[in-house]
Amino acid sequence: QAQLVESGGGLVQPGDSLRLSCVASGRIYSSAVMGWFRQAPGKEREFVALLRWNTLRTLYSDSVKGRFTVSRDSPYTVYLDMNNLTPEDTAVYYCARGIQYSSSAKDYNYWGQGTQVTVSS
Questions:
Q1: Helix (H) or strand (E) segment spanning residue 52
Q2: 48, 37 Cβ separation under 8 angstroms
Q3: Which residues in the chain come in under a pLDDT of 70?
Q4: How high is the pLDDT of residue 99?
Q5: Strand, coil or helix: what is 88?
Q6: Chain segment 25-45, per-residue pLDDT in tens
């Protein structure tokens, strides 16, 4: 049973940067896709970014493209580097693992517990 643990969230000011980490226990198959999603209060969970483990192919939502970067490191850690944060980025951020190269949350079957990111002056 795979487990994902996120960390790195916190309270920052607009324009600041933050790095989220997601450590996966157990093996990540080379074809796995690691996704980042977020959920703001009163809103549905939305796709942020994804990375396919073996090809390093990435995909970003329009709202974060150019500001956020997803990457990975050995053995099984995925990062989300967030730059130029705005109050609209405030949400609980979740790491997820799936198989399909997909921005839909339903295609991910393992999820972390989430880490809170708050952007406020």
A1: strand 46-52
A2: yes
A3: 1
A4: 92
A5: helix
A6: 877 778 899 999 999 999 999
